[in-house]
Design a protein that fits this description.
Helix content is 52%, strand content 6%. With 268 residues, the protein is mostly helical. The protein has 2 domains: 192 residues, Rossmann fold (3-Layer(aba) Sandwich), CATH 3.40.50; 52 residues. It has a 4-stranded parallel sheet with strand order 3-2-1-4, sandwiched between helices. It is globular and about 55 Å long.
Length: 268
C-alpha cells in the first residue's frame, strides 16, 4: 500500500532530526504534554530516544474531562520512559480555566475546551522556560490537515515531530516503539469535554480520512478520482476537502497586510 511506512527508518530520521533541532536551537531538552493518547505517547517515546530521559520533560495536565483511563495511561508512559521525578509533574488545569471564565464571563462547551487547550500550552511554555527546553508538539498530519486542533492550544509548539505522519502511520510507528497496546487501540479524543471522540466529530474513521487526504492532497487527484480510489461517495470527499479549506487560517502565520511596498492605487 502506498501509505505504508518503514517504522525503523522513520524512527531513526525523526530521532536524529529532533536531537539536532533541539541542540541547534541552543536548548537542553524537550517538554511534552502527555495526555494518555497515542499521539502524545508516541511523541514522548521519540523525545526520550532523541534526547535521553534526563533531558525529557513530561507533564500531565488533566481537567475534569480527563478520564481515569487516560490518567493511568499517561502515567504508564512516564514510567516506561523512566522520566526522572524532577522532570515530571501533574498540573490540573480546571482552577486556571475557572479563573479565565470568571474574568471573561460564562462560555459554551467548545470555548471552554479551547481555553483548556490554550491553558495547557501556556503551562508547557512556562515549563520549557524553566528548563531551557523547547515545547515538542504532538499533532499528527491527519488532524493538522483538516484543522482538528485548537489554534494556539495543542498546536502551540516549537516543533511537530510526527506532523507529517497520518494517524494510521502514527499507529504503526507506535507499535514499533513499544507504546502500550491499550493506548494504540483507544479511540482518539482531544478530551476537551466528557464523551468527546475524534472520529465522531470528524464524521469518518481515521483509515478512511487518511486515505482521502492521501489521494486528494498528497497525490493531488481530483475529488472524483479520490472518491473512486477510496471507495466512497463524492460527498464524503467534498466534506473532507471543505474541512481542509475552511481551516487554512489555522495552519499559517497570521496574515500581514503589506503596506510598505504597496502602491497607493492598491489601497482603494
Amino acid at each position: 500500500m502506498e501509505m505504508e511506512i518503514d517504522p525503523e527508518l522513520v524512527e531513526r530520521y525523526i530521532v536524529n532530526r529532533l536531537r539536532r533541532y533541539v541542540f541547534e536551537s541552543g536548548k537542553r531538552g524537550g517538554v511534552v504534554g502527555v495526555s494518555g493518547g497515542i499521539d502524545s505517547a508516541t511523541t514522548a517515546f521519540l523525545v526520550a530516544r532523541a534526547l535521553g530521559e534526563e533531558r525529557s520533560y513530561c507533564y500531565i495536565l488533566p481537567s475534569e474531562a480527563t478520564s481515569e483511563e487516560d490518567l493511568r495511561d499517561a502515567m504508564q508512559v512516564v514510567e516506561l520512559l523512566r522520566i526522572p521525578e524532577e522532570n515530571f509533574g501533574v498540573i490540573p488545569v480546571d482552577e486556571i480555566v475557572a479563573g479565565f471564565e470568571k474574568a471573561v464571563g460564562e462560555v459554551d462547551r467548545v470555548a471552554r475546551g479551547n481555553i483548556r487547550a490554550r491553558t495547557r500550552m501556556v503551562i508547557l511554555y512556562a515549563k520549557a522556560s524553566q528548563n531551557n527546553a523547547l515545547v515538542i508538539g504532538t499533532g499528527d498530519k491527519s488532524e493538522i490537515t483538516i484543522g482538528y486542533f485548537t489554534k494556539y492550544g495543542d498546536a502551540g509548539a516549537d516543533v511537530l515531530p510526527i506532523g507529517d505522519l497520518f494517524k494510521t502511520q502514527v499507529r504503526r510507528l507506535a507499535e514499533y516503539l513499544g507504546v502500550p497496546r491499550q493506548i494504540i487501540e483507544k479511540p482518539p479524543t482531544p478530551a476537551l469535554w466528557r464523551g468527546q471522540t475524534a472520529e465522531e466529530e470528524i464524521g469518518v474513521g481515521y483509515p478512511l480520512l487518511d486515505t482521502i487526504l492521501f489521494y486528494r492532497f498528497d497525490k493531488r487527484l481530483s475529488d472524483e478520482e479520490t472518491a473512486e480510489r477510496a471507495g466512497v461517495d463524492i460527498e464524503t470527499v467534498r466534506m473532507i476537502v471543505n474541512m481542509v479549506k475552511s481551516t487554512q487560517h489555522k495552519r499559517q502565520m497570521p496574515e500581514i497586510f503589506g503596506i510598505s511596498y504597496s502602491h497607493g492605487s492598491d489601497w482603494r
